[in-house]
Design a protein that fits this description.
heterodimer; A: mainly alpha; Serine Threonine Protein Phosphatase 5, Tetratricopeptide repeat; two-stranded antiparallel sheet; B: two-stranded antiparallel sheet; 8% helix
Chain lengths: 487, 777
Amino acid sequence: MKKLIYIFIASIILFSSCEDQLEDKIYDKLVPGLYFQNDNEAIAAVNTLYGVLAGNGWSYYGAGNDRIQMGQDAMTDVFAPASGSGMWYELNYFTWKTDMYLFSQNWNWPYKGISDGNYIIEYLPEATGVSDNVKTRVLAEAKTGIALFYWDLVKSYGDVPLIKSFSEGVKAMPTQSPKAEVIDYALGLLEEAVVDLPITYDDANDGRFTKGACYALMMKLYELNGDNQGVIDATSEIMNLNKYKIVDNYLDIFAPDNDQCEEIIFAKQCLQDFNIGNSFLTYCLPGDFKRPEGIDIQHWDSYRARREFYNSFDPEDARRNTMYTEYENTSDGITVLPDDADVLCLKYGWDPAALIVFGTNDIVILRYADVLLTRAEAITRKSQSVEQEAIELINEVRDRAFNHNSDKMVKLSDFANADELLDWILKERGWELYFEGHRRIDLIRHGKFLSKAQERGAIDVAEFRKIWPIPQAELDKNENLIPTPGY
Amino acid sequence: MEVSYDGSIAMQNIAKEYDTPSAYEYALGYNSVYDEYQRLRPDDPIFTNAVVKKFTSDEIANYKENGGTDWFNLLTRKGEINKHQISLSSGTEKSKIYASLGYMDHQGVIKLSDMQRLSTRLNLSQKFGEIFEAAIRLNASTTKNTNIPVGSSDVGFSRGGATSGVFSFNPTIAPYDENGEVAKHPFNQQHNNPAGLLLTDFNSESNRLITNGYLKADIAPGLFAKLSAGYDKVMNNSRTWVPAEAKNNLASSGEATVGSFTNETQTLNFIVQYNKNFKKHNLGIMAGTDYQAFEYNSLLAKSTGFKTSAYKYNSMQSGDVQKTITSKSSSTIFSYLSRLNYSFDEKYLLTATLRYDGSSKFAEGKKWGFFPSIAFAWKLYNEPFIADLNLFSNLKLRTSYGKTGNQAIGNNNSQPLLGSRMEYVIGNTRGVPIGPVSPGNNDLSWETTKQTNFGLDFGFVDNRILGSIDLYRMDTEDLLLWFGTPSTSGFGGILKNAGSIRNQGIEFAITTQNTTGIVDWSTSFNIANNQDRWLDRAGLPFAPEEEFGPVRGIYGYEVVGMFKEGDDIANSAQPNSIPGQWIYNDVAGRDADGNWVETPDEKINADDRVLLGSNTPKVTAGFTNNVTYKGLTLTLFFQGMFGYDIWNNAKIMHENPFHALQLEGLNKNAFNFYTPNNQNTNVPTPVANPYGGSNNKYLEDGDFVRLKTINLNYQLPIQNSWIKAANVYVNIDNAILWTKYEGLDPETARAIGTKSGSENDVYPNSRTYSLGLRMTF
C-alpha cells in the first residue's frame, strides 16, 4: 500500500507542470490589453470602419444585391427590375417582407461599425503608446464614421437603438430611441470631429473622413430632422472650404479614376477584387450586351432605369447619357429596346482593370451637386418663397448638365411659388442623383413616395412601407425591439 | 503465425435520381408557365424588358426529335471500389506482433470524385522480466482525394456544385457552345454551367500517423502502474484550380488555391491500479492522471487573375491577386481520475468514479469541473431464488447515476479578442484592419449532463434468447450554446452556458438463436425511443409558446389550403394573394405594446410562425438475420428511423414553376402548377406569394426502412496444410429503401447541419454491389 501512495504522489509531481498548460493560448489574435501600443495599431483600428463600409464584401456599400444605395433607389420611380421576381421586383413593387437580406445586412453592418467606433472612443484615449496627433485624428474619424452609420440607419429604419458605448453595447438588449434623439447624438459627434479632421489628406490617406465629409453628413442629418437652418449652415461651411466644385463632365464623377474627382466629398474607395470592388455595371448588363474591347466583366441583368424616368429627361441633358435604349449585342447586331421596355443604366464608367464584376470606380456617397441642391431646397423651405439663391444653386448644377447652354437654365419667373420650385428641385435631384441612394428619402420628404409607387402599379402601397422593417432576426434576438408597425 | 488476405471489388450506382423533364417536356412546360404568368402579370418587367421568350413550335419539335441535355447524366457515372488487405500476426507468451497493409481505390458516382488510400499498421508487445510489459502501436495512412465541388458553398462556387448545379441549367440548354467551350447561361451569369465543373481540379492528400505505446509494471501482487503516451498527427495538403474555361461565376479569371493544415494530438496517461480479492469480496482501486494537448495550424494561399490556364495551382505567383491566410490554435485538457470497483459474492457490483477535469477552453477560474458517477448492479441470476426458478439463464439488474462534462467547442472563446477584419481601401491601397472579432465570455465553463439509467439484462433457454432493456434520462445543463446577440452588440453572437434540455428514452435489444444444427439462424433486433425537449430555452429566440418544445424544432408557417378561383381573398388575412397561392394559418399577432400574443390579427407575418416538426427521430431500429447452411451464410440487415421531419429543400427550389422563366432546371412535377383549369394540385401558381415563407408543405415525413445490407458468404470447403480458411462473399449495400419522403434519400438529406435536413447540396447515396474473397493461411 505504501508503494501505491508513493507512485500516486510521483504521478502528481510528474504531471503538475501540465496543469499550468490550461492557459488559453492565443496565436492568431490579440487580447485587448495588448492593443493600442503604437500609432499603427490605432490607425489599423479605425480602418475597420472603412472595411465595414463594404459589409461582408457584398452588402452595405459592397458589391452584392443588398447594397444600401440600390436598396434605397429600388423602391422608387427611377428604377425598374429587369425581371418579375426576386428582391428587385419586391422592392420596386412594394411586396417586400421583413426577412429580406437587404434589411438585415444594412442593419447589421452599420451597427458593427458603430461598435468598432465606440471601441476606439472607449479604449484609445487611455492608450499611452499612441501619439497625440494620431489619437486626435483617429478619434475624429471614428466619430464621423459612427455618424455616417447612424445616418444610414435612421434614414432607412426611422427610430433605431442608440448605442453610445462599446462595452455596454455588447450586453445591451436595447429598444429604439426616437429618430430625433439619434440624429442629435450623431450631430454631436460630428461637431466634435469636425474640429479635428483635416480638409485634405496626403495621397496615401486619401479616402478618409474629412472636414467636408463631416459637414456633408451634418447637412444630411439636419435635412432628415427637417432643420432647414442647420442645412443652410452646414452647406455654407462646405462651400467655405473652397475645396469642392461641380466638375465639367458628369460622367467623370463615376469614371474609374474618380478618386481625385473634386466633386466627391466622400466615397467608398474601390479596387478590382472581391470585397473591395464596385460591381455597378454587372447588374445592369443584359446577357447579350457586347462589352467594349478590353472589358471583361459579367452580365447579371438585374435592374434598369425606368422608361418613364428616362423619358422625363430633357433629351439634351448630359446626365441621361449614362442610359441606353439600344446596344450592340454579342451577335454583332443592334438590340433596340421596345418603347415600353426599361432602359439600361451604365452610370459608372467602364474600367479596363475590372475583374469578374469588380471595378475600381469609387462608390460615390456624398458629393457637391447634392450639397447645392439640398441647400436650394432648404432655402426654399425656410423662406417659403422663390429665392434667387436657390435658382442659382440649381443652375450651377444644370449648367454642367446642359454644357453651359443658358437657354436651359431655370429662372425665378418659372415658379409661381415655393411649392412649384420644390417640385422642380425633386425632379432635378432625380435627374442628378439617380442610383446614388438618395431617391427614396427625397420622395418621402416631398410626400411622393407612395403616390409614385401607385403610378407604376406597385402592389401593396401603404404608409408603413415608408420605413424599412427592423429585421426579423433582430426581433427574434431582442424582445425589447418593437416591430416596425404595419409589417 | 497467421497470414490473411481480404479483398473485394465493387460497383456502385446512384440509388435514386431526380425526376427531371426531357428538353421536350421542359419546353412545353416552360411555355405553359410563360402563358400563365403573362395572363396574371401582363405588365411584368420580365415581358416588357423582353428578358424571356417562348419556345417556338420548331424548337419544341426539334427537342422532341433530338432530346436535350441530361445534366445529371453529364456529371455522374458508375462507381467502382477496389479493396485489398493483407495482415500477419504471430506471437508467443511473451511477445506478440501484428502487421497489416491495406489499399483502397474508390471511383465515386460523381465524375472526378476519386479516392485512394494506403494504410499500414504495426503492433508489438513484449514482456520482459517478471515485472515489465511494453507495447508499441504504429498506424500510418496516406489518402489521395480528387473532388468535384458538390455543395453550393464549396470554394469558388457560390451557385451550385455538382448536385445543385444539375438544376441551374435546364435540359434545353447545350452544355457546350459551337466552339466546344462551356456554354454561358443565356442571360444570367450568376448561374454556373455544371459542365464547367468537369474542367476543375480539386485534389488533396492527407497523411496520418498515429503512434502510441505503454509501459506497464506489475509492482506487487494485484498492483500495477501503467504509463501510456500517444501522438497523432494529420497532415493535409490541398490544391484547387478553377480555370477561366469553366466559366465559373466568381472565378472567371481562373482561381487557384494551395492549402495545408496539420492537426496534432499528444496524450500522456498514468494510472495505478490495485486489485484485491478476499473471501467473497473483490476490490479494485484505480487512480491516475491524464493529459491531452491539441494543436491546429493552417495555411491557405489563394491566387486569382491568371492570363493562362497552363499553370493550374503550380505557379501561384502568376495570378494578379494573391492572398495568404494562416491560423493557429491549441487547447489542452488535464484530468485527475479515480475509480473504485467492489463486488460481493458475484451478486452485488458497485462502481464509483470521480473525475476532475480541467480544460483550457474555459474562462479563468472556470476551467475545472468535477464529475462523479456511481453504478450498482445486482446479478439476480446468481441468487438461488432466481436460479431455482429454472426460467432464466441470465438476469441482471443495473442502475447508475453520473455527471459528465462536455467541452467540445472551438478554441479561444472565453477571452475578448481582436483580429483581422474585412479589407479596406485607403489611398488606392488595400489593407487589413485590426478590430474586435469576439466579445469573449469570462463565465464560460463546462456543460454538464446528469444521467440516470435503469437496465435489465436477461437470458432464457441457455442464453439462446438474450436481451436487455434500458431506461435513461439525461438532463443537460449549462449548455454550450451559440447565442445570436442583437447586431447592436457589434457581434453576431456569443458562446454561453445557458439553458437546459432533457433527453429520455427506452432502448430494447434482443438476440435469439432461432435454430441450430444444419440450419443455423439467429436474429438480432434493437429499437430505441428518444424524446428530447427544452427544459429551459434560456431566451433563445423563437415562438414563446414552445418553451418546452423539441430541441431541434422546425418552425415555419402552417399552410391550411390554397386559394381557389372565386375565394374572397380581399377580406382574408392575405389581401394581396391570388388564387393558386398558399393560405397560411393566422395564429398570432402583437398587442398594443408590441408584445407577441396568440390572437389572430388578420395579418400573416413572422408572428404566425409555429412549430411544424422536429428533425430528431423519435424511434430508431435495427434488425439483423444470419442464416447459415453448411458453408453458406446469408446476412440481412435492416435499419429504420421514425418520427421526424425533413425540409425537402430540393422541392422548394425545383418545384417552383416561376424558376422556369429564369431558365432553371426543374422537377417534372413543377409544371403541374395551379391554373383555373388545374385547381386540384399541390404546386402553387408561378406568381410568388407576398406572404409567408418556409412552410409545412415542404416539410416531409422522414420515416424510412432500409435493407441496408445483403451479404452472402460461402466458406469454401478447402482446408489443408497451408490454407486455414477461405471465404467468398457477395454483398449489396443500401439494397432497398422504403420511404414516403419524396426527395432522394432521407438519410443524405439529414446530413446537412443539425437544424434541418436538406438534400440540395449533398453527395448522392449509392447502391454498392461487391464481390469479395477472404483467406487465412
